[in-house]
Amino acid sequence: MIPALLRGLCDDAALFPPGNAPLPAALTAHARYRDSAFAALVGPFIFPIPRLAELAASHPAPIEVVLTAPEGPGTVATALDRASEIAGVTVVGVEIAARPGQSAEEFFAELPAAKPRWPELAVSVEVPRDGRRPQFFDRLADSPYVAKFRTGGVVAEAYPGTPELAAAIRSAVTAGTPFKATAGLHHAVRNTDPATGFDQHGFLNLLLATHLALAGADTAELADILADRDGRALAQQLAALTDGETAAVRAAFRSFGTCSIGDPLTELVGLHLLPAALRPVPESSAP
């Protein structure tokens, strides 16, 4: 029931702002998603390394997790050792941020330390939104790593403008570097949050921008697509992609982290990209 364009698109980041779900509730909800008719939409459970002791104490049911390393590559090897001791937990990936001021040369020199011990892991590198960005892109090109773009947060400054995000997508596609996104993608389509007034990116906008970047669109054209608020038009263009175009888009844009699975699901049903028979599982309900 889940088309190829959307399979595994929504990583479960329920623990992160602005959702900040309690761990027991987040684990219960994730288990429900994995048992639902829309399970193929949902990716792994995103979990921060600093909270591993809490995960161990929760005695989780079998679950696939991606660990986030906000304090840099040097924390990953020890965290993977600790996670391997938690019954039921399978780590399938890590997402690693650079420390403040850490150069690309320093970051990538540290990065391979854990990879030979866990060669099956998917490793994502958060690309800084400052002057280090070009050097990080240079290092990511022809590497085994995935780029990670921060697309929002809890303050206005955390949201990149459409030209900045368009340039990032264009850089990744040109270099052949797959990418994922995190934070701020609360809705399918570009919108203004009525509570905060923040302009938020839409994940359908990112999917279509990725397709156009693969077709050779320039940064200005991509920025226009990222700014588009016509959800029906975006959905129709994405629904019209061929199987080959769909595969290329998802090979480039792997997934995005969302603190709510229900919101993307509801909006995808509303835009007729998912069948009406699918309905969200209440995220706070008991099994």
Describe the overall structure:
- Helices cover 37% and strands 17% of the residues.
- It has 287 residues and is of the alpha/beta class.
- The protein has one domain (4-270): Aldolase class I (TIM Barrel).
- The strands form two sheets. The chain has an eight-stranded parallel β-barrel with strand order 1-2-3-4-5-6-7-10, surrounded by five helices. The chain has a two-stranded antiparallel sheet with strand order 8-9.
Give a quick rundown of the structure:
This protein is of the alpha/beta class and 287 residues long. Helices cover 37% and strands 17% of the residues.
The order of strands across the largest sheet is 1-2-3-4-5-6-7-10
Can you give the helix content as a percent range?
A: 25-40%
Number of strands: 10
CATH class: Alpha Beta
| Global shape | globular
Whole-angstrom Rg: 18 Å
- CATH H level: which superfamily? Aldolase class I
CATH architecture grouping = Alpha-Beta Barrel
Average pLDDT, all residues: 93
Do you know the CATH topology? TIM Barrel
Beta-strand percent range: 15-25%
